[in-house]
Amino acid sequence: MHPEKSGTRILGIAESFRGSKRSILAGIVMRRDLRIDGAALETITVGGMDATDAIIRLYEALNRSDINLILISGAAIAWYNIINPEIISQTTDRPVIIITYEESDGLCDALRHHFPGDAERFAAYKTLRERDPVHLHTGHTVYLRRAGISRITAEQIINQITLDGKVPEPVRVARLIARSVMRSSQTGI
């Protein structure tokens, strides 16, 4: 991958749920020069274990061979629906970055509390790599989990596509769309 190329395409994925059993996943294909040239939607189960499969389906639904990277906002979305970046990277043959925005001691205690005895969920969480802190040019720090991409390249890309604050543009736009679709579905539009 060549992070310096303006045509590098990133699939940014974010989700939204509010009091529903399903969460909306939005995926936005954005070039490194911030032009949007694709979008797709999926749903996942709140509190389920189907996020990894849904992300793969979302990628496949786009039917795009020109996507260079998958960028996902959050490793445990829709109430602890754990994402496996290694499986996504292997299945799609694309590098994957999971970005989170807060320092944390992890989710082990929360998983034990909310999902006692859920060995599958706990094992899925334990397979995640440690997070790499990345200091952005905006002055903020984010945390990355990676699959199929070096730390240096991941840092370069995240810095290039974060205009201000700490949310990179592809996932910022994906989150806006996911929230809008969720609101619309709840109001019957």
TrEMBL record:
Signal peptide: none annotated. It holds the Pfam family Endo_dU. InterPro entries: Endo_dU (IPR002802). The lineage of its organism: Archaea, Methanobacteriati, Methanobacteriota, Stenosarchaea group, Methanomicrobia. This is UPF0215 protein RJ53_00885. Belongs to the UPF0215 family.
